[in-house]
Structures are given as C-alpha cells and as structure tokens.
Amino acid sequence: MYYVSYWFTVDGNATQYAESFMSVLGVSSQIPNVGIMFINMAIVVAGSLMLRIVIPLIINCLLLVVIVALVIFVQPNDNDRNWFYIVTLVIIILMNLCNGLYQSSIYGIVTDFPDNYPNSLTIGNNICGMFTSLIISPENVMLNALLYFCISLGVLVICVISLGVLVKLPYYRHYMAKGESARMRDSAENPSLSQYWECLSYSWVQLFNNFFVYFVTLTIFPAMTIETPYYQRKGDPWGSVFPENLYFAINTFLNFNLFATIGALSANYIQMPSPRLLWIPVLLRIFFIPFFMFCNYQPIGKIRTAVTL
C-alpha cells in the first residue's frame, strides 16, 4: 500500500487522494487498456506486429525507471502530494496503453500457434501474479515498493530479451509463415466491414461472456477486496490464520491469482456448460458484487457498521 498508506495518508488520517486512489486507479487502468485493444484490433496498421510488442515493453521499462526514481528521491510531503498523485495516474495511463497494445498484439501472434496457446498466456499471467503475491516483503514500505518495482523492471527486461530469442526459433517461424499464408489466401490482411460483421455474428455471445466475466471481476478485484479487512471486534486479538502483515497479500492477491490459475488450467480439460449455455453462469456472476458489498467492505473515508455476511 505504498501509495494509499504511505503517500496519501497523513498521521493515520486518509486524505482525499487516499479515498479516491483505488477507484481512480481502476478507471485509469482499464479504459486506456481496453480502448487501445479495440483500436489495435479494428485498425490495420502496416508494419511488423512484433514491433507493437517490443516497443510497449521498452516504454514500460522506461516508465518503471521513472517510478523507481520517484520512490528513491521523492518522499511524502504536503507540497508534493498533488503533483505526485497526478504524475502517478499519468504513468498508470501510459503503462496501460502500452499493456493494451502489447496484450492484443501478443494474442494476435499466438493465434497462429496451436489452440492451447492463448489459454497458456492467461495461465502465465496468473502464475506471475502468484509469484509477486508470495514474495515476503520487508516491513519498510519504501523498501517494499522499491523491491516490487525493481522486480517488475527485471521481468520486463527478461521479456524483451526472450522475444529476441523467440523470433529466431524454427517453431515460431514455421507457425508465423503458416498463419501469413492462411491470411493471404482468405484476403484477411486488410479485413473489410463485412468480414468484421461476419466474425461478430458468429462470436458475439462468447465476446459478451468474456466482457462480462472481466467486468464483474474488475469491479470487485482489487478495489473492493483490498478494502475488505478481516472482521474483528474492537479490542479483540488478531484471529485470522494469516499473519496480519500478510493478510491482504494472501487473502486478496494470492487467493485471486491462485484460483484464476486453477480455473484456466481446468478449462483445458473441462468444458462445461456447453458454449450455447455458457452465458447463464456468466450472468449469475453479477451476484458476486452485492455479496462482497455485504461483507466487511470498508471504503476509505466511509463508515459502514453493519456486516451482514
């Protein structure tokens, strides 16, 4: 909680920045991410698809260098809090623009590979989330933030290097050539509106299912779950099986990424219900939102005394 607890909380009192940060973070992350994905999908731009993967990774590396520099050289104070809040959100917007371009482009490449590869990307993302959740971090908030951001920077550098190796592999070249010839045969290099419409007419239900799953998930995680502390009466000792300093790391982030990984792995072996009925459990997920609201959900700056569940 480097931003909320360290930067935007003064003497134990949450400022207006702390109260709004998690919600604004979600909006600043998802709108640029999804928006650039749609643009990248709908507008065909000449040039190497690999460039649209490498360039966002390099930009994100530079942005992480800026974040690390801010962690080291700028300490919380009233004079810097406003511009630090704005700069942080600008960095988040830029990073998610790059992430959206990177993710949609990497999925574009992986679609030329065998059918199980797209799901493998999802599994890889969730395993990465598990890894960061399992890191036992120091109590010092600044050192904690520095550790996480430096690890992120190191992973991105490894990704850039691994892409240089990937494009030289015979396996990669074989499937890229195969996909290129298939697109040329079907005149799909520059798809027309009628081709887009034909694609949507076949797949709109599953596209809606994907959208709605992520809509419910991102409404709850992490904005709501990070503001749902362990319930204990005033004066009672800590009663959770998880240590207090690791409660949110385990109960929020590790829990989410672990079961997301299990779900993605299970989808390789279990496909139920059928695609025709899949919309039913997808729509039923909407009830998770009121469910979490009636837990010990305590938004910063708000007082909720009734805990129903």
Low-confidence stretches: none
- Tally of structural domains: 2
Sheet with the most strands?
2 strands, antiparallel
- End-to-end separation in angstroms reads 26 Å
Instruction: Compute the number of strand runs.
Output: 2
List the helices and strands and how they pair.
Blueprint: H1 2-7, E1 9-10, E2 13-14, H2 16-42, H3 51-73, H4 78-110, H5 117-134, H6 141-166, H7 170-185, H8 193-220, H9 247-266, H10 279-284, H11 288-293
Antiparallel strand pairs: 1-2
Helix pairs in contact: 2-4, 3-4, 3-6, 5-9
Features:
309 residues; mainly alpha; 2 domains; two-stranded antiparallel sheet; 11 helices; 2 strands; 68% helix; globular; transport; Nucleoside transporter
Describe this protein's structure.
- A two-stranded antiparallel sheet has the order 1-2.
- The chain is 68% helix and 1% strand.
- It starts with a helix and ends in a 16-residue tail after the last helix.
- It is globular and about 70 Å long.
- The protein has eleven helices and two strands.
- The chain is mainly α and 309 residues long.
Short description:
By secondary structure, this protein is mostly helical. The protein is built from eleven helices and two strands.
